């Protein structure tokens, strides 16, 4: 029995020794994924999406109701302020104009009639005064003549007011008649037509939109929605670029012209509308396109930069030292690792702006083109798969590392 126990102990010690030897060999065989210190630009940016709109867009409606008699423009028509976009049936409004002109003529005739009566009353009053001075008539006759004259003076004022009222009514009718001819208010291009010949349009509290005209597509604006977490880094005159799905290979330049203060909340997400303007001389950008906007927050040009993975990488056994460096150090201090004769060697660096993939270096003992460690590569043969003492699914992952090609 004792002999059996001794044999089991010897086998266990042998297995432990074998496992230790395998771990030491595997550690010595660790391969590292390398990167390089490069020189280039690092751009810190804010991204958002938006919609392309004409810089000036006019909705053309109608101020009178009627039936569309004819159309003078269609989708994509280039128009000027002299072009007739649509003609409403003017018959009803022409009849009102004719009626108001007749009313005006009658009012003017009333003025002439009252004027004639007033002239006669003035003459009668003069004769009555002469007779009264000669004491040939009683005072009551003089009073009656005066009253008649004053009454006609009042009638003259009423008649003249009626003329002005008729003229005003005629002007309204003439304006409404003119409104039946709908002309373009601006020079531009028709981007939307919402009516057809024979359709009846009704002008009520809000004028119906018949056409939408873009004043020009040579210059457009982008209405972008920026999250509240990023709006503090967006400001007027800021440089930005954007792309559209129709021209994925081309990046368009723009500038911020307005940061609107009115927030928009959708499902507890707060965004702000930012307006950008851009040239569109080739008119490739069309209204309604979705723009993927990049706002330039900071740019470090022609600086040394390292992959962010190199700053995150920590070789096995160096975690505690690295953590202590981060806790007690400055945020701009970091370290990268280079391959030395005995293994990875830490090199202190001073970091700057980052674009999410690369970080600019403000200082440090590294040179352009120098190779640095960005992660580890898995061994081509994994002994842990054949080790009975290894936990299920066992394998080794390194800080900042990843699985290499098989």
Molecular structure report:
The protein is an alpha+beta fold. It contains 5 helices and 19 strands. It is rod-shaped, with a radius of gyration of 45 Å. The protein starts with a helix and ends in a 29-residue tail after the last strand. 20% of the residues are buried.
Q: How would you write the strand order of the largest sheet?
A: 2-11-14-13-12-15
The average pLDDT score comes to 85
Morphology call: rod-shaped
Order of helices and strands: HEEEEEEHHEEEEEEEEEHHEEEE
Total number of β-strand segments?
19
| Strand content range | 35-45%
Instruction: Sketch the major β-sheet.
Output: 6 strands, antiparallel, barrel
Cα-to-Cα separation, first versus last residue: 49 Å
Radius of gyration: 45 Å
The percentage helix is 25-40%
The low-confidence runs, each spanning 5 or more residues with pLDDT under 50, are 320-329, 380-406
Report the structural category.
alpha+beta
Number of helical runs?
Answer: 5
Q: What are the SSEs and their pairings?
A:
Layout: H1 2-28, E1 31-36, E2 38-54, E3 57-61, E4 66-71, E5 78-79, E6 84-88, H2 91-133, H3 139-179, E7 181-183, E8 188-193, E9 200-201, E10 209-214, E11 219-227, E12 239-244, E13 247-266, E14 269-279, E15 290-307, H4 308-312, H5 319-328, E16 333-340, E17 343-354, E18 358-364, E19 371-377
Antiparallel strand pairs: 1-19, 2-11, 2-15, 3-10, 4-6, 4-9, 5-8, 6-7, 8-10, 11-14, 12-13, 12-15, 13-14, 15-18, 16-17, 17-18
């Amino acid at each position: 029995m004792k002999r059996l126990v001794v044999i089991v102990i010897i086998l266990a010690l042998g297995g432990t020794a074998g496992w230790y030897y395998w771990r030491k060999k595997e550690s010595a065989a660790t391969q590292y994924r390398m990167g390089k210190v490069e020189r280039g630009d690092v751009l810190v940016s804010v991204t958002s999406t938006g919609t392309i709109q004409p810089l000036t867009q006019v909705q053309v409606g109608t101020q009178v109701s009627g039936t569309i008699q004819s159309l003078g423009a269609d989708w994509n028509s280039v128009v000027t302020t002299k072009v007739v976009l649509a003609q409403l049936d003017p018959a009803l409004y022409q009849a009102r104009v004719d009626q108001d002109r007749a009313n005006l003529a009658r009012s003017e005739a009333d003025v002439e009639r009252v004027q004639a009566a007033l002239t006669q009353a003035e003459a009668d009053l003069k004769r009555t005064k002469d007779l009264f001075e000669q004491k040939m008539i009683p005072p009551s006759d003089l009073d009656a003549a005066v009253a008649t004259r004053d009454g006609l003076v009042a009638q003259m004022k009423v008649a003249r007011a009626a003329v002005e009222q008729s003229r005003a009514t005629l002007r309204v009718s003439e304006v409404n008649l003119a409104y039946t001819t709908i002309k373009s208010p601006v020079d531009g291009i028709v981007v939307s037509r919402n009516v057809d010949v024979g359709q009846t349009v009704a002008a009520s509290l809000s004028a119906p939109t018949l056409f939408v005209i873009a004043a020009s597509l040579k210059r457009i604006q982008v209405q972008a929605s920026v999250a509240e977490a990023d709006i503090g880094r967006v400001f007027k005159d800021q440089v930005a670029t954007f792309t559209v799905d129709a021209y994925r290979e081309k990046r368009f330049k723009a500038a911020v012209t307005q940061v609107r203060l009115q927030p928009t909340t959708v499902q507890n997400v707060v965004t702000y509308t930012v307006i950008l303007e851009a040239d569109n001389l080739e008119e490739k950008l069309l209204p309604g396109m979705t723009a993927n906007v990049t706002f330039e927050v900071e740019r470090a040009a022609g600086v040394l930069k390292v992959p962010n993975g190199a700053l995150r990488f920590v070789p096995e056994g160096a975690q505690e030292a690295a953590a202590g460096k981060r806790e007690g150090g400055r945020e701009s201090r970091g370290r990268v690792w280079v391959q030395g004769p005995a293994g990875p060697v830490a090199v202190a660096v001073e970091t700057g702006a980052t674009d999410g993939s690369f970080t600019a270096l403000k200082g440090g003992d590294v040179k352009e083109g120098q190779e640095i460690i960005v992660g580890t590569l898995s061994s081509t043969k994994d002994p842990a798969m054949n080790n009975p003492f290894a936990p299920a699914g066992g394998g080794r992952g390194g800080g900042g590392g990843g699985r290499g090609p098989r």
